[in-house]
């Protein structure tokens, strides 16, 4: 309530209104009633009361309570002696999210579904990767100006490279057409793969392919090898998978969060065979039905946990300038 906020402000500054007290009041207004796991709001308000001008980060999504980002970041902050706190920012619209970042002076937010594309008009600037992908998952607040970037593509690219599989010129299928799918297609095209985006709504896949080709090929974008990206992205329905028989399959949908679901139906299960790499971007659960069936068929599998690890490591670097080893992040998440 307003009286609670006023008393909190007075308590922070001993009755004197200052920048820290005003900030505390803004945080109370913006985050009171925001859905969070039990007692997480108490941790936020306690942090701000003790550190009125301390750095606050958040995971912005709807829903956001399932995210492990706050747990990971807060563990890192404690280990590295960083005076910061990460919390949950679940709002109705992307405009509400951006408004809270500005009014509360948040240092940064990690953006998830459904705001990765909707947040862009509310930002002051986005980098080349985010512009090409058409989605932002990382927002940094520098003196009131909001800068958007995308580390999801990095989270796709890095595990593929680390796995040792050959990507260049190989046939790859990305299932989905949202922000994560765009990041996956971008990463694969930058690595030189022959990519096809497939989706139940074919028009969305076609729009994704057209956007990626315009961003990467028409503009002469360079791949990770320093050469111009040459192989255009194609598009089709889910049934196109068994026609392509891809070497690499990436699930960039949320299908798989329920244990019984898989994006590769019975007709397309023929694509799961020895020598194929299957990367499921779903990280809860860490072993989805798709990965279980792929591994049983002799495929090389990559869990969505790996994407989370590498994109989070890159976010921590952009937010605080620290390089956290991937093994350390995996250890925290176990």
What is the string of SSEs from the N terminus onward?
A: HHHEHEHEEHEEHEHEHEHEEHEHH
End-to-end distance: 39 Å
Taking strands numbered 1, 2, ... along the chain, how are they ordered across the largest sheet? 2-1-3-5-6-4
- CATH top level label of the largest domain: Alpha Beta
Mean pLDDT: 93
Second rung of CATH, namely the architecture of the largest domain: 3-Layer(aba) Sandwich
> Spans with pLDDT under 50 lasting ≥5 residues?
1-7
* SS field, number of helical segments: 13
Strand content: 15-25%
Large-scale geometry: globular
Q: Can you tell me the CATH superfamily of the largest domain?
A: Leucine Dehydrogenase, chain A, domain 1
The radius of gyration is 21 Å
Number of domains: 2
Tell me the major beta sheet: 6 strands, mixed
Derived from helix and strand composition plus strand pairing, the structural class reads alpha/beta
For the secondary structure, the number of strands is 12
- Within the CATH hierarchy, at the fold level, what is the topology of the largest domain? Rossmann fold
Helix content: 40-55%
Task: Give a description of the structure.
The chain has 334 residues and is an alpha/beta fold. It folds into two domains: 2-150 and 308-333, Leucine Dehydrogenase, chain A, domain 1 (Rossmann fold); 153-302, NAD(P)-binding Rossmann-like Domain (Rossmann fold, 3-Layer(aba) Sandwich). Helices cover 43% and strands 16% of the residues. It has helices at 2-13, 19-31, 40-50, 69-80, 94-104, 128-133, 152-163, 179-190, 202-217, 240-244, 289-296, 304-320, 326-333, and strands spanning 55-60, 84-89, 108-111, 125-126, 138-142, 145-149, 171-175, 194-198, 234-236, 248-251, 277-280, 300-302. Strands 2-1-3-5-6-4 form a six-stranded mixed beta sheet, with helices on both faces. Strands 9-8-7-10-11-12 form a six-stranded parallel beta sheet, with helices on both faces. Helix 9 links the parallel strand 8 (194-198) and strand 9 (234-236). Helix 2 (19-31) packs antiparallel against helix 3 and helix 7 crosses helix 12. The chain is globular. Mean pLDDT is 93; it is low at 1-7.
């Amino acid at each position: 309530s307003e009286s609670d906020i006023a008393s909190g402000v007075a308590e922070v500054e001993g009755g004197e209104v200052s920048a820290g007290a005003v900030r505390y009041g803004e945080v109370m207004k913006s985050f009171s009633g925001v859905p969070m796991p039990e007692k997480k709001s108490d941790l936020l308000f306690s942090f701000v009361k003790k550190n009125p001008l301390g750095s606050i980060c958040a995971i912005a999504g709807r829903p956001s309570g399932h995210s492990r980002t706050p747990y990971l970041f807060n563990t890192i902050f404690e280990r590295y002696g960083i005076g910061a706190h990460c919390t949950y920012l679940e709002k109705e619209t992307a405009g509400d999210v951006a408004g809270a970042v500005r009014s509360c002076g948040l240092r940064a937010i990690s953006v998830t579904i459904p705001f990765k594309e909707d947040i862009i008009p509310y930002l002051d600037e986005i980098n080349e990767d985010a512009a090409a992908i058409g989605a932002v998952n990382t927002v940094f607040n520098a003196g009131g100006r909001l800068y958007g970037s995308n580390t999801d593509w990095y989270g796709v690219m890095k595990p593929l490279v680390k796995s040792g599989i050959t990507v260049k010129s190989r046939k790859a299928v990305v299932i989905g057409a949202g922000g994560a799918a765009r990041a996956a297609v971008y990463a694969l095209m930058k690595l030189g793969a022959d990519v096809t985006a497939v989706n139940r709504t074919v028009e969305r896949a076609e729009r994704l392919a057209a956007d990626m080709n315009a961003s990467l090929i028409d503009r002469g974008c360079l791949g990770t090898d320093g050469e111009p990206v040459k192989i255009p992205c194609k598009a089709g329905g889910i049934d196109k998978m068994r026609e392509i028989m891809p070497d690499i399959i990436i699930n960039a949908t949320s299908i798989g969060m329920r244990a019984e679901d898989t994006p590769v139906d019975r007709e397309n299960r023929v694509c799961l065979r020895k020598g194929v790499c299957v990367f499921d971007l779903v990280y809860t659960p860490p072993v989805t039905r798709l990965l279980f069936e792929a591994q049983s068929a002799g495929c090389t599998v990559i869990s969505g946990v790996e994407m989370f690890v590498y994109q989070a490591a890159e976010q921590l670097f952009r937010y605080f300038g620290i390089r956290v080893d991937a093994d350390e992040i995996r250890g925290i998440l176990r």
